[in-house]
Amino acid sequence: MYLLSVGFGYNIYKFYRLVKRGIIIMKIHKNAILLFTVLAFWIVACSDSTNVVATVNGTKITRKTYESTLDNLILQQTQNNPAFVDNEQTRLLLGQIALDQIITNEVLAQEARKANITVKNEAVNQSINNLKQLLAVDENGKAITDKRQIENKFNKKLKADGVTLQQLKANIRKELSVQLFLKDLSNKQKIELSEETLKKFYDDTMAVVSKNQHKITSLSKEDLALIAPFAAGVEKASAERVAASIVFLAISDDMDEKMIANKKDLANKIARELKDNKIAFTQAIQAYSDDKSALQTNGEKILIRGTLPKDIDKKIFEARLGEVFGPITDQAGIYILRVNEKRAAHTLTYGQLRQDIINYLISVALQQKIQQQVKDLVQKSKVEIFLPQYKVNNTQAAAH
């Protein structure tokens, strides 16, 4: 599987595993249909039943649960989307999405119980440990290694959110049961792809990659929407690229001239030490770089031709192998680099991409099938909504 070998793979179950890190990824759209909930584990069902916003097959959804979910969505949108504006219109739309999430999640949890799906204690405990690790960072972004300190921070988080450990575990168990139920639905699907379908998808993908306008205009909007993500991955995997070690010193708008000058002096010092072999790149990245993500891949990053600012792009792709060059400054900061490997642009064959095409098309087909099945489950449920702005009292309240 060629694309998988360069880090461009498709996880069939990715669409419901986002919950592992409490990440919410979505595009706000007035006709948004959510397949399932991606609730943070911290949001627990509130026992206060005096203010109910909805019921799902008789199970009450409280205003506190709804508002906590809405607040979480707004926070995630604010963090993930710089253009996000928190106003009445977006809050109304996110409120509908939050309500749909809660209702869909409750329906799926009820179905998981009907299917006698059980979650092992080990899985719940592992999720608790994962949550603790997410909190194992101090105010300066440095990792906390002391177990007692991590435990104290975890307990403070529980107290601040008004959540007991028992409530948290119950919610984790519920969320994991939903994941297992969805996985079970996926495993029951039978999806067959003909060789003709695979080859046509390859040909259409290569037309998009090569920007063959005549061929592209002959494709339907639906076909283009299906092909585009895969074609982007193929383009990235086949483009001219280099593997480079990079030390990056960030420059922000709030820095004065003296601070910037100090950064430049430091960059010159780092460059001299690297050129004189007084320090290894991995050591320099660890000690000085404001971007340490390359340490996860042995100090290297893959850079694609044409994706960087023109001046930097030109210098990197014209650099000799093993040459340390820089400092180079742009608006974002200062770079010191060394090119470790070069690879020319090339065309990926059908044979190289065949398995990735199969994985991708199965993944998409699974999502579509499960989306419809989940939608049907929600439609068959008795849902009553009591919020005036969303009030619909029928079985299709959460399926629009």
Give structural attributes:
400 residues, single chain, 14 helices, four-stranded antiparallel beta sheet, alpha+beta, 11% strand, three-stranded antiparallel beta sheet
Q: Could you write a compact summary of the structure shown?
A:
The protein has 14 helices and seven strands.
Description:
With 400 residues, the protein is α+β, with helices and mostly antiparallel strands. It contains 14 helices and seven strands. Strands 4-3-6-5 form a four-stranded antiparallel β-sheet, sandwiched between helices. A three-stranded antiparallel β-sheet has the order 2-1-7. It starts with a helix and ends in a 15-residue tail after the last strand.
**Per the principal axes of the C-alpha atoms, what is the gross shape?**
globular
- What is the distance, rounded to the nearest whole angstrom, between the alpha carbons of the first and last residues? 38 Å
Biggest sheet layout: 4 strands, antiparallel
Low-confidence stretches: 4-42, 394-400
Number of helices in the DSSP assignment = 14
Overall mean confidence score, pLDDT: 81
Please give the radius of gyration in angstroms.
25 Å
Helices and strands, with pairings:
Blueprint: H1 2-5, H2 14-17, E1 52-56, E2 59-62, H3 63-80, H4 88-114, H5 121-134, H6 147-160, H7 165-187, H8 195-209, H9 213-217, H10 221-238, E3 241-250, H11 257-275, H12 281-288, E4 301-304, H13 310-318, E5 324-329, E6 333-343, H14 350-380, E7 383-385
Antiparallel strand pairs: 1-2, 1-7, 3-4, 3-6, 5-6
